[in-house]
Design a protein that fits this description.
Layout (H helix, E strand, L loop, with lengths): L1 H4 L14 E5 L4 H12 L3 E6 L2 H15 L4 E5 L5 H14 L5 E4 L17 H23 L3 E6 L22 H26 L3 E7 L12 H9 L7 H4 L1 H8 L10 E3 L2 E2 L9 H15 L5 H5 L8
Parallel strand pairs: 1-2, 1-4, 2-3, 4-5, 5-6, 6-7
Antiparallel strand pairs: 7-8
Helix pairs in contact: 2-3, 4-5, 5-6, 6-10
Bound molecules: NADPH dihydro-nicotinamide-adenine-dinucleotide phosphate and retinal.
NADPH dihydro-nicotinamide-adenine-dinucleotide phosphate (NDP) binds next to helix 2.
Organism: Ovis aries (Sheep)
Protein name: Retinol dehydrogenase 11
Length: 310
């Protein structure tokens, strides 16, 4: 049963000396295993974590296991746009390149709460936080092309809807659905970003993934989910297996033509009708820019002369 639920292995043998990668939420779960494999292949890997102490422990562990000393920890709290901007500012100052951005961090089923900027927590961290981070790092990705962005979404997007009149969950909130909505937003962002990147001929490609059902700390906010995870822990994927599809999208040669697609078990996967709706994707893009105070045409602007961080 585990084999059935755990198929999909990244078989690319590509090595990454001289390449630079950022993995959000890399101190545990799928992100940690993704970062470890990128380090094993010789990349300089930035663990973008909200808890720097946890991150440092993991960095030491990865350095020991891989022999790669180029594993660095930087503070990133996706629930605070000031922290996202501070992370990006420091990264842009210290790094010439960015080849791989893995937008992996996520929260699931947390009680109703808001980010420092007043966004509902799931939408704020899982979607808007990564949207802003990608915006701030895009110029560096373009300069480093060919480069890739991987957005970790979920099969749960099938139950998601983008309720523009209730994006912050103020009129109605259900924690499980809030997670699903944010994971749908990850796919819509991926598709819209891919469309815009193609139009600008940037050499940056973008993919969304479902990692599978993975034994990680994601279920920490729900006693029921913790219980289900515990019962089925032997059958569901290990974090290392859960990292395979992110790695596949980050590393597989020739995947550029599939930019914008969604992947599961290292194959292109079907997404819901909502997730294929270009009108919703465009509107979500505009609304996200509005909420974050960034220009809607930021992608075109990133192609022009260097701009300071707003
Ligand atoms: N596990 C599963 O079955 C599935 C997971 N996914 C997706 O995979 C991704 C990784 O999840 P997984 O490894 O399972 O879960 P974990 O809970 O194990 O890891 C989530 C990571 O995100 C970080 N994070 C949470 N909030 C923030 C924040 N505000 N700022 C920065 N980092 C934050 C966590 O940091 P900290 O440790 O400090 O809390 C942690 O490092 C998520 O996007 C999730 O939605 C999708 C489908 C299924
Ligand atoms: C019923 C059932 C399962 C439960 C699956 C669930 C509840 C999946 C939830 C996935 C989530 C929350 C993804 C996050 O993005 C298992 C464990 C596969 C084992 C087989 C039977």
């Amino acid at each position: 049963m585990r084999k059935m639920l755990s198929s999909g292995v990244c078989t690319s043998t590509i090595q990454l000396p001289g390449k630079v990668a950022v993995v959000t939420g890399a101190n545990t779960g799928i992100g940690k295993e993704t970062a470890k494999e990128l380090a094993r292949r010789g990349a300089r890997v930035y663990l973008a974590c909200r808890d720097v102490q946890k991150g440092e422990l993991v960095a030491r562990e990865i350095q020991m296991m891989t022999g790669n000393q180029q594993v660095l920890v930087r503070k990133l709290d996706l629930a605070d746009t000031k922290s996202i901007r501070a992370f990006a500012k420091r990264f842009l100052e210290e790094e010439k390149h960015l080849h791989i951005l893995i937008n992996n961090a996520g929260v699931m089923m947390c009680p109703y709460s808001k980010t420092a900027d007043g966004f509902e927590m799931h939408m704020g961290v899982n979607h808007l936080g990564h949207f802003l981070l990608t915006h701030l790092l895009l110029e560096k990705l373009k300069e480093s092309a060919p480069s890739r962005v991987v957005n970790v979404s979920s099969l749960a997007h099938h139950l998601g809807r983008i309720h523009f009149h209730n994006l912050q969950g103020e009129k109605f909130y259900q924690s499980g659905l809030a997670y699903c909505h944010s994971k749908l937003a990850n796919i819509l962002f991926t598709q819209e970003l891919a469309r815009r990147l193609k139009a600008s001929g940037s050499g940056v490609t973008v993919y969304s993934v479902h990692p599978g059902t993975v034994n990680s700390e994601l279920v920490r906010h729900s006693a029921l989910m913790r219980w289900i995870w515990w019962i089925f822990s032997f059958f569901i994927k290990t974090p290392q297996q859960g990292a395979q599809t992110s790695l596949y999208c980050a590393l597989t040669e020739g995947l550029e033509v599939l930019s914008g697609n969604h992947f599961s078990d290292c194959h292109v996967a079907w997404v819901s009708a909502q997730a294929r709706n270009e009108t919703v994707a465009r509107r979500l893009w505009d609304v996200s820019c509005d909420l974050l105070g960034i220009p809607v045409d930021w992608l075109m602007m990133a192609a022009g002369p260097k701009r300071s961080l707003k």
